[in-house]
Amino acid sequence: MRVSELIEILRDQPPDAEVELAVVAPVDDDGDDITVDRYSVEGMLPWTDDDSDEVVIWLVGGEEDDVDAFLDAVEDEDGEDDEDGEDGEDGEGGDHEGHDHEGHDHKH
What is the reported pTM? Predict the structure, then answer.
């Protein structure tokens, strides 16, 4: 979806209505049951993948503390090093907390 399409869809909605993101996923691979997780949209983030010049817009939602930590980490990455002068929270700029940064370069 393009930003212009999202704006068009939202244009007829009440301007004071809460915006949520509903993530629909199968409960398991074998069944027809689905689950829906709802999150309020707490912010947005322009994002460019390492292998592309195209900017995509992330609507960021989740638990408030998690969203705040994520957005703070992304802001810190925009020109600041950690206190130890390294790029990553693990001091090595690589994997941490079981999360590989292959394909994206944000910190947690």
Answer: 0.57
